[in-house]
């Protein structure tokens, strides 16, 4: 089924058209170069490292055209790419590596030198320098090379790690079939054509870094530019100077751009609209961009499905502010109550999704898969309502995950880490509103050791968790409010936090 190899197709149709460009290195690659370089990488993976269909290939690196070519090569060979979150602590990375048992790890040991040195001491798989890998792959001759591969629709192409509804990251399987139907959904809903041009600034360890715009754009023969790190002023400048037609962002990015000094003079040449998802978007932010003539197409997706599940068409952005739109093509949805009955309009319920865009399950976790996917329906855990016009609105999450800067964070993981600290009797973490990050974490602790200081707690957390998971505030209380069953009442903690209004003497000194 090599009709799934659309890079090969476009290399035949428009061989010399620029496909991707790197803003840092100024390297550009045509569709023909993408095709040929990916064949070299595939040959190198097969002949030098003996990787085969079903093997896992873990990668620790920022996004780039080379990373994309590695994906193309892996897809053709049936090798499963595992983009690791380089913001994870070493222990978190080791958990993921143990779960997927990769045959090889490719790492940017220049940008992540400290992490890689630590991993090399503890990881079981061989770790190879990414730069060295690509340099050697470029020397592979294709003169006598006959590519022999078959891309199968059910074959996994990615394993994305997500916190899900429990603290430990879980590997979500992402297949060729999911990718193709998601590409179609995205291209139809966003009206993508081969003349479109985008800038990709999202990291590769999220499905959004691949499947919201990057791969759907290339599926349509469009152009994608890469910028490895989001900097608001730099991105604003690029969007203004280049003929970028659409841009993907999370609300935190939009907030940072609005607050940038460059925003006042921002006048893009061609930018039609933003595609936004990942967390709630404030009305004020929607209006700020509307004044610049840029509408926002909000949407909804998750690692386990799509991620193109619902979309709010940009022409409806101001009419239905705050909505995630309507279901996209090729996906079934329903909203149910706790009795598994579909609810009426304007009634809250859990959002469920069915279709070819839904994952077959979680890697090495059948029990969790069966708990989330029932009779082909993925139970998302998100609570939504549908108005009388058919537009959907997110109310919150059944679980207690909060989203900070586009990152899913589960309080229980942080709480378990807090309980490892000698001197903490009780701990609870809640997500609260934050102007910059959308939401941020606040930890409430009860101590039996008054010599324990905030800097000690924060230092321990930083050494055991990704930096974005470390709570912004740590508050000491004599006791935590409890429910009638003796459970910590987090709703009361949120109310208490608002009343405290960040009074400094409530914080550890």
Automatic annotation (TrEMBL):
Name of the featured protein: AMP-binding protein
Pfam families xrefs: AMP-binding (PF00501), AMP-binding_C (PF13193)
Keyword Ubl conjugation in annotation: no
Alphabetical list of InterPro entries matching this protein: AMP-bd_C (IPR025110), AMP-bd_C_sf (IPR045851), AMP-binding_CS (IPR020845), AMP-dep_synth/lig_dom (IPR000873), ANL_N_sf (IPR042099)
Keyword Ligase attached: yes
Sequence ranges assigned to domain AMP-binding enzyme C-terminal in this UniProt record: 413-487
PANTHER family, A to Z: ACYL-COA SYNTHETASE, MEDIUM-CHAIN ACYL-COA LIGASE ACSF2, MITOCHONDRIAL
Top-level taxon of origin: Bacteria
Record domain AMP-dependent synthetase/ligase: where: 11-363
Family of this protein: Belongs to the ATP-dependent AMP-binding enzyme family.
UniProt keywords, alphabetically: Ligase
């Amino acid at each position: 089924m090599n009709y799934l190899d659309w890079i090969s197709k476009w290399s035949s149709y428009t061989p010399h058209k620029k496909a991707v460009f790197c803003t840092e290195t100024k390297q550009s690659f045509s569709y023909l170069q993408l095709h040929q370089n990916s064949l070299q990488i595939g040959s190198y993976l097969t002949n030098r490292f003996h990787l085969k269909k079903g093997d896992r290939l873990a990668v620790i690196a920022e996004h780039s055209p080379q990373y994309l070519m590695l994906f193309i090569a892996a897809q053709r060979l049936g090798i499963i790419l595992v983009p690791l979150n380089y913001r994870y602590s070493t222990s978190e990375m080791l958990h993921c590596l143990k779960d997927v048992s990769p045959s090889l790890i490719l790492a940017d040991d220049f940008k992540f030198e400290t992490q890689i040195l630590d991993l090399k001491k503890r990881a079981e798989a061989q770790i190879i320098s990414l730069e060295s890998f690509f340099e050697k792959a470029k020397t592979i001759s294709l003169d006598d090379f006959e590519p022999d591969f078959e891309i199968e629709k059910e074959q996994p192409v990615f394993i994305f790690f997500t916190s899900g509804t429990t603290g430990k990251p879980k590997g979500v399987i992402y297949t060729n079939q999911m990718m193709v139907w998601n590409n179609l959904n995205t291209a139809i809903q966003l009206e993508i054509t081969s003349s479109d041009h985008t800038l990709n600034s999202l990291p590769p360890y999220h499905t959004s870094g691949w499947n919201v715009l990057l791969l759907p754009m290339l599926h349509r023969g469009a152009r994608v530019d890469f910028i490895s790190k989001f900097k608001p002023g730099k991105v604003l400048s690029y969007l203004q100077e280049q003929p970028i037609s659409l841009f993907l962002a999370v609300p935190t990015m939009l907030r940072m751009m609005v607050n940038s000094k460059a925003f006042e003079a921002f006048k893009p040449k061609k930018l039609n609209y933003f595609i936004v998802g990942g967390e709630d978007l404030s009305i004020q932010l929607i209006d700020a961009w509307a004044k610049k003539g840029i509408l926002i197409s909000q949407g909804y997706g998750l690692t386990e499905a799509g991620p193109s599940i619902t979309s709010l068409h940009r022409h409806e952005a101001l009419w239905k502010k705050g909505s995630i739109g309507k279901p996209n093509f090729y996906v079934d949805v329903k909203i149910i109550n706790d009795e598994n009955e579909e609810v009426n309009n304007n009634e809250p319920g859990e959002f469920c999704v069915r279709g070819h865009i839904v994952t077959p399950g979680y890697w090495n976790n059948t029990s969790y898969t069966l708990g989330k996917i029932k009779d082909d329906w993925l139970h998302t855990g998100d609570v939504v309502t549908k108005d009388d016009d058919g537009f959907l609105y997110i109310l919150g999450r059944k679980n207690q995950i909060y989203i900070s800067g586009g990152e899913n964070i589960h309080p229980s993981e942080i709480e378990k880490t807090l309980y490892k600290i000698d001197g903490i009797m009780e701990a609870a973490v809640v997500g609260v509103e934050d102007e910059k990050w959308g939401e941020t974490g606040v930890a409430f602790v009860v101590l039996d050791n008054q010599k324990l200081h905030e800097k000690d707690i924060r230092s321990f957390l930083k050494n055991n968790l990704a930096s974005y998971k470390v709570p912004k505030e740590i508050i000491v209380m004599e006791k935590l409010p409890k429910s009638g069953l003796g459970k910590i009442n987090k709703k009361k903690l949120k109310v208490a936090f608002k009343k405290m209004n960040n009074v400094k003497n409530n914080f550890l000194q």
